[in-house]
Amino acid sequence: MNPPPDDSRKRPRIIPAETVEEVFEALHWAAEEVKKRSLADEGPFSEEAWQRLLVRLKERRQKTRDYEVAKAFAARMHSSFNDPMIVQKQENEEDQRVSGDGKSAFQKAKEMIKERREEISTSSSTGMELDLETMTQRKAPTLLELSARALAKNSGSITSLKYVPDHLRKQLSNFVNDLGRINTRFMQLLIKDSPSEVCVKDCVDLEEKDLIQFLCDSDRVSLTVLTLDLCGRSMTEYALTEFLKRSPTGFPSLITLSIEGAFSLTDNGLALISRSAPLLQFINLTDCSLLTSQAVKILAKSFGSTLKGLNIGGCQGMKRSTVYSSSLNKFKNLNYLSVSRLISINDGSVIPFLMFNCSNLTDLSLANCIEVTDECIWHIGRYCKKLEALDISELDNLTDKSLEFLTEGCKYLNSIKLTGNRFSDEGIAAFLEVLGSSLNQLCLNRVRAVGPETAISLAEVCKKLCYLDLSWCRRLKEEELRRILSCCSSLRSLRLFGWTQVEDTFLAELSRSPINIIGLKMTSLYAHREPDYYPSMNAKFF
Questions:
Q1: Residue 49's CB: how many other CB atoms inside 10 A?
Q2: InterPro entries annotated for this entry (predicted)?
Q3: Beta bridge partners of 198
Q4: What is the mean pLDDT of residues 367-394?
Q5: Helices (runs of H) and strands (runs of E) counted in the chain
Q6: Of 213, 214, 215, 511, which sits with the fewest C-beta atoms within 10 Å of its C-beta?
């Protein structure tokens, strides 16, 4: 029988393989293909078949190499695990996660809570009476406050604020704002007589020409604090350019700037602001939706070593990128950072900053950064030793381990918001057992697992608590709330939205309490706007 034309016995087959390994892999693949396609009776592969197999083999290897390269690049860009400095730091500090006996204070507290639960289940308990007379009485408003409110109601008749100190101007401005009476005339009163602070919380009606005139008329040399919130219509690139044409020196003394809700502000506009205010230390850019990651780069270039407070919460134009991460790492002295509601933020975006630049950080907000995990919270507990206020609301990926990490490192924590998280009742109770004695503000809004263990720890440990939010904590009962109110003698404000699980008679009793209780039936819907009822983290700096 004559051999087929492509038989190797007549002429040798040339296999374009670079290595012997590729030849053997191709042979193995060919055998598998023959087995799969039932081609055993059709004779050996032709030259073209070998070529196709080798091409497919090279394509598969190239895809594998491309995948590995892309994976390594992504890890370098979005994570801290491939950074040699970070890896070395983590290896050196891994042994410090637990104490010498192998159990942290948080774990010991959890064990104590389990023992306490067993003791309570074997003993009978009676309801605690709510003694309203022994609770801290609400202070009457001062004559100064009453006078400021009266002036706010008649702001249209005020002709001058000369000799009025800055803190009273600010208070009066806030009262006028609450009444919805801010206008250009009142704003002109605020900038007369060279004040060092001008605070206007509602600039909705301000137009471009009004803003230009307002900025030009102000004493820019003495002005150190400027708040123009909700100035979306007027804070445009054109308005800023026109202002700098008329006043090239800008604001040489400005330290604090708040332009929350400036939805017309662009990156170029922010660059103009940066050049006009060289001494800026605190800037609030909340909900400036047109700003991109380049805005962080602009701020880092101008104020990397001097900026102390940065709020870019809700700036949805800022996406996760190398520009964002590298720029954030250039801020060396931040005391306050808020990246809340930036849904693209993950662990890799924040961890490098926490490891190398957070030694002075006292206030941090990661609320609604839904990709943040326990790993990020561990770094907060490990490196943010001076942290006093933390907002980790709406982070579904967090577990009780996050609370444990915080108890190990954040010893100065006095304010924490846990809204909408999935922590267990025992986990929150253990956290309060360890750090509750220093807390003065706690938010457990919509933490569904909050129950009797948390209530007991609140009552027994949190003696300094001033502001408490238990809205929608439906597992708590009347008896447990009585215990909290009777034991937390420093409590000034309590939020109870969604408390339909208790009797109306008890709610009526609460309404007579000297504590400011928000959320009960027949109470003002706008009570939560009073800053004294539940101060925000942002209010500390702006």
A1: 15
A2: Leu-rich_rpt_Cys-con_subtyp, LRR_dom_sf
A3: 226
A4: 96
A5: 19, 13
A6: 511
Cα(218)–Cα(223) distance, rounded to whole angstroms? 8
Cα angle value 434/437/439 (rounded, 5°): 100
Residue (of 320, 355, 328) closest to 81 by Cα position = 355
Whether the pLDDT of residue 13 is over 50: the answer is no
Q: What is the residue whose two structure tokens read 């339909």?
A: 500
CA–CA gap between residue 436 and residue 87 (Å, rounded):
33
Nearest to 202 by CA among 180, 224, 171, 169: 180
State the burial class of residue 127 (Cβ atoms within 10 Å of its Cβ: 0-12, 13-18, 19+).
exposed
Residue 414: count of CB within 10 angstroms of its CB: 18
| Pairing label, strands 441-443, 467-469 | parallel
Q: pLDDT tens, 155-198?
A: 999 999 999 999 999 999 999 998 888 999 999 999 998 899 99
- Is residue 8 predicted with pLDDT exceeding 70? no
Give me the CATH topology for the region 414-542. 3.80.10
Q: How far apart are the first and last CA of the chain?
A: 96
User: How many Å apart are CA 213 and CA 217, to the nearest integer?
Assistant: 6
- Cα–Cα distances (Å) from 535 to 119, 177, 191, 226, in that order, read 38, 17, 27, 20
**Cα 339 from chain centre:** 5
Classify residue 96 as exposed, middle or buried by CB count within 10 Å of its CB (0-12, 13-18, 19+). exposed
Query: Across the chain, what does the average pLDDT equal?
Result: 83
- Kindly report the backbone phi and psi dihedral angles of residue 258, in degrees, each rounded to the nearest multiple of 5, phi listed first: -125, 120
Query: Which residues 6+ apart lie within 8 Å of 40 measured at CB?
Result: 34
Contact present, 296 and 265 (Cβ < 8 Å)? no
What's the pLDDT score for residue 20? 52
Q: Which residues are CB-contacts of 210 (< 8 A; sequence separation ≥ 6)?
A: 184, 187, 234
Does residue 70 surpass a pLDDT of 80? no
Residue 34: predicted pLDDT:
57
* Token code pair at residue 378: 């561990």
Which two tokens mark 250? 């800008």
CB 484, CB 458: distance < 8 Å: yes
Domains of the chain: which residue ranges? Answer: 414-542
Q: Is the pLDDT of residue 470 over 50?
A: yes
Cα separation values, 312 from 160, 198, 283, 285, Å: 36, 21, 9, 5
30-34, 104-108, 504-508: range with highest mean pLDDT: 104-108
Tokens of 479: 């008896």
Spatial separation of the C-alpha atoms in residues 186 and 204, rounded to whole Å: 14
Is the pLDDT score of 56 beyond 90? no
The residue type at 63: K
Q: Quote the CA–CA distance of 489 and 502 in Å, as a whole number.
A: 22
| C-alpha pair distances (Å), 413 with each of 284, 367, 390 | 23, 17, 8
Percent of residues, the chain, with pLDDT higher than 70? 77
Which run of H or of E encompasses 416? strand 415-417
Between CA 333 and CA 24 the distance in angstroms is 60
